[in-house]
Amino acid sequence: MSTPAPSSPKLSEELKDYWDQLQNVKDDASELTAALTDAQFNWRPSPKHWSISECLSHLNVADGIDLEKVRGEIERAHAAGLYGKGPFRYSFFSRRFVKFMDAPPGLKVPAPRVYTPNSGEPKNKVVPEFIRIHDELLDLVARSNGLDLASIKIPAPAGPFKFSLGQHFALIAAHDRRHLWQAWEVRKNGNFPL
């Protein structure tokens, strides 16, 4: 069950948008899973498709790895005085990649091995972890207020690329929406156990 949505702190317009996107992701996951049993939570449409549990577990793994990277870069940026005012500009590549990662997926790509979800985990383990991670992400968005969101670089979740802090928040939210869309599709499946 989701914790009550805290009101967003006074943020720049761009960070307020990321805050709202991540809060909406958190609320959507809570709505999706609230009434599910563990059997429903772990039901797979086919052996090749993930369950709702696996979709959220994948996000827990990916977002959990991102937390440390983002937190570290925010701390370094504050220590170095990397402040700036928007609006910030981002590269064409990073904007396209964020769009590519959003829901609904136009092209399915296998998850990198490091982000492979655990199977068969109970709802009372996966969902609270999802909420905890997203509460931490919301805190990181708030701690980024006043920083130069374009010049602070974060390594991409997978691959040799780096994204600006602002685009990294956008990427996390887009990737989360992609897999929540996938999880909702599982729940809407005509064979979903009732």
Over the alpha carbons, how many angstroms does the gyration radius reach?
17 Å
The tally of helices reads 6
Terminal residue distance? 20 Å
The stretches of 5 or more residues where confidence is low (pLDDT under 50) are 1-5
Roughly what fraction of the amino acids lie in strands? under 5%
Please indicate the count of domains.
1
Mean pLDDT: 93
- Describe the strand arrangement of the main beta sheet, using strand numbers: 1-2
Largest pleated sheet: 2 strands, antiparallel
Under CATH, the topology can be stated as: Four Helix Bundle (Hemerythrin (Met), subunit A)
Q: H/E element string?
A: HHHHHEEH
Q: Could you state the oligomeric state of the chains shown? A: single chain
C-alpha geometry: elongated
For the record, the CATH class is Mainly Alpha
CATH homologous superfamily classification: dinb family like domain
Total strand segments: 2
Q: What structural class do helix, strand and pairing data support?
A: mainly alpha
Describe the structure.
With 194 residues, the protein is mainly alpha-helical. It has a single domain, classed as Four Helix Bundle (Hemerythrin (Met), subunit A). The chain has 6 helices and 2 strands, in the order H-H-H-H-H-E-E-H. The protein has helices at 13-33, 38-41, 52-80, 92-101, 123-143, 165-188, and strands at 153-155, 162-164. The chain has a two-stranded antiparallel sheet with strand order 1-2. A hairpin with a 6-residue loop joins strand 1 (153-155) and strand 2. Helix 1 runs parallel beside helix 6, helix 3 (52-80) packs parallel to helix 5 (123-143) and helix 3 packs antiparallel against helix 6 (165-188). It starts with 12 loop residues before the first helix and ends in a 6-residue tail after the last helix.
